[in-house]
UniProtKB/TrEMBL annotation:
GO terms for molecular function: pyridoxal phosphate binding; transaminase activity. InterPro entries: Aminotrans_3 (IPR005814), PyrdxlP-dep_Trfase (IPR015424), PyrdxlP-dep_Trfase_major (IPR015421), PyrdxlP-dep_Trfase_small (IPR015422). It comes from Aquitalea magnusonii. This is Aminotransferase class-III. Gene3D superfamilies: Aspartate Aminotransferase, domain 1, Type I PLP-dependent aspartate aminotransferase-like (Major domain). Belongs to the class-III pyridoxal-phosphate-dependent aminotransferase family. Keywords: Aminotransferase, Pyridoxal phosphate, Transferase. NCBIfam families: PRK07046.1. Its cofactor is pyridoxal 5'-phosphate. It holds the Pfam family Aminotran_3.
């Protein structure tokens, strides 16, 4: 018998074969659409990532509402993936749907602001504590633009990231540490620049390495998630951010916190909850209730430096912004979402359910004495295939196992439960119920029992 992460791997493979058959049998319409899609969609999907799910063919959605969705074959699912955070506050929130419909009838994009822009910026300043804001269409773009402002404001070229980070498909950050050395990510397609030239990378939670990377005074900014969430979750050790912020200040390096996922921590993100003081902050995905948009904020000092850089620059295109940025539809969606959906009440519900979920998963793991653990950042929960939580990107990377993830994810999907296709992240939204969390925990337990 071969074992993997404490389970019987032969049994897991047998179970996988059975689960594939079960998936296929219950989804003839999805199978038919997948066959048709192969003719005109490259890779058979509108975005090639949609091939990364654990399913034998693409699962087609008919409708999504609140915490659940229905596929084109009439199967219903509780959604713990929630569009990998885009729908973190529920699918199609009614206030956003209403605002979008009303705004669409009054015009969608003019390359001029609507009044909503003023309301949204005022609200962002109140929530996140940074006084000035700009907009983008995606978190990727917001990060790209934040980096441009940071380099322009400091006159420095180097960028620093943590090993195993993800900030969207912004090229600069795809440099990994392999055996302690920076290496450009080999899987990047069509990338012709040597990214290592301007990107430095150190392990998360390693203050000595952070200082070594900063001390020549050439690093414009550190771009980081306050807790890593994209290589499995990695939490900052106690005191890490206080010391890291002090190092950034000492060496004149700006701190950009990407809160796109850690907005799960609370109304003001991880930053507010833990009293951090970044120079810039980036948020994307759920900000417009699923309507494409992103935001990035500036401290008063950083805003002044950015404006000065623009004033002193050669007149012409800054390389920052896109035509549809800050369009009236996105602004209306953000206003409704911030005012009526991303509320204290919504967070309170999500926190309670995430606690229930984490406790339930931990109980199953303990009952079966599995060498797994559970990590949580507010409304975001993850089970990981290691006995103690990883401390950095290398440790987190070492325990990723996509074969194993695919088997668990497909097993859950066949029981009407969707979780994020990358690693094992689970989100709850304001409409998720106690019974749905119990259902997830029971299915997780049933999976474990079948592969012990
Ligand atoms: N930042 C973080 C922390 C993310 O997790 C992601 C996406 N997973 C992004 C940025 C990029 O978001 P988008 O794909 O919407 O541009």
């Amino acid at each position: 018998m071969s074992t993997r992460h404490g389970i019987n791997w032969d049994k897991a493979l047998q179970l996988h074969a059975a689960e594939r058959q079960r998936f296929i049998a219950a989804r003839p319409q999805s199978q038919q659409l997948s066959a048709r899609a192969d003719q005109h969609l490259l890779f058979g999907v509108p975005l090639h990532w949609m091939d990364d799910w654990s399913t034998p063919f693409t699962l087609y959605v008919k409708q999504a509402q609140g915490a659940s969705f229905e596929d084109v074959d009439g199967n219903r699912y509780v959604d713990f993936c929630l569009g990998d955070t885009g729908a973190m506050f529920g699918h199609g929130p009614a206030p956003v749907a209403r605002a979008v419909a009303a705004q669409a009838a009054r015009g969608i994009t003019t390359m001029l602001p609507s009044e909503d822009a003023v309301w949204v910026a005022t609200e962002l300043a109140r929530r996140f504590g940074l006084p000035y804001w700009q907009f983008a269409m995606t978190a990727t773009d917001a990060n790209r633009f934040a980096l441009r402002w940071a380099r322009a404001a400091t006159g420095r070229q180097q960028l620093l990231v943590f090993n195993g980070c993800y900030h969207g498909t912004i090229d600069d950050v795809f440099v990994d540490l392999v055996d302690g050395k920076p290496v450009q990510r080999a899987s990047l397609l069509g990338q012709v620049y040597d990214l290592k030239q301007y990107t430095r990378v150190v392990e998360f939670n390693d203050l000595a390495a952070l200082e070594a990377a900063l001390q020549d005074g050439q690093v414009a900014c550190l771009l980081a998630e306050p807790a890593m969430t994209n290589i499995g979750m990695v939490l900052p050790e106690s005191g890490f951010w206080e010391a890291a912020q002090a190092l950034c200040r000492r060496y004149g390096t700006l701190l950009i916190l990407d809160e796109t996922h850690t907005i799960s921590t609370g109304m003001g993100g991880y930053t507010r909850a833990h009293g951090l003081t970044p120079d810039m902050m980036v948020l994307g995905k759920p900000m417009g209730g699923g309507v494409p948009c992103a935001v990035y904020g500036f401290s008063a000092e950083m805003a002044q430096r950015a404006q000065q850089a623009k004033r002193e620059a050669v007149p012409g295109h800054s390389g920052i912004g896109t035509t549809l940025t800050a369009n009236m539809l996105a602004m209306a969606a953000m206003r409704a979402n911030l005012a009526e959906v991303m509320t204290e009440q919504a967070y309170a519900h999500m926190f309670a359910l995430a606690e229930q979920l984490a406790a339930g998963l931990r109980a199953v793991i303990a009952r079966h004495a599995l060498p797994w653990c559970v990590t949580q950042v507010g409304a975001r929960t993850e089970f990981q295939f290691c006995a103690t939580p990883p401390r950095n990107g290398s440790e987190a990377d070492a325990i990723l196992d996509s074969d194993m993830e695919h088997i668990i994810h497909l097993f859950l999907l066949n029981r009407g439960l969707l979780i994020t296709p990358f690693h094992n992240m689970l989100l709850v939204c304001p409409q998720t119920t106690v019974a749905e969390v119990e259902q997830l925990v029971a299915a997780f337990d049933s999976f474990v029992q079948q592969v012990l």
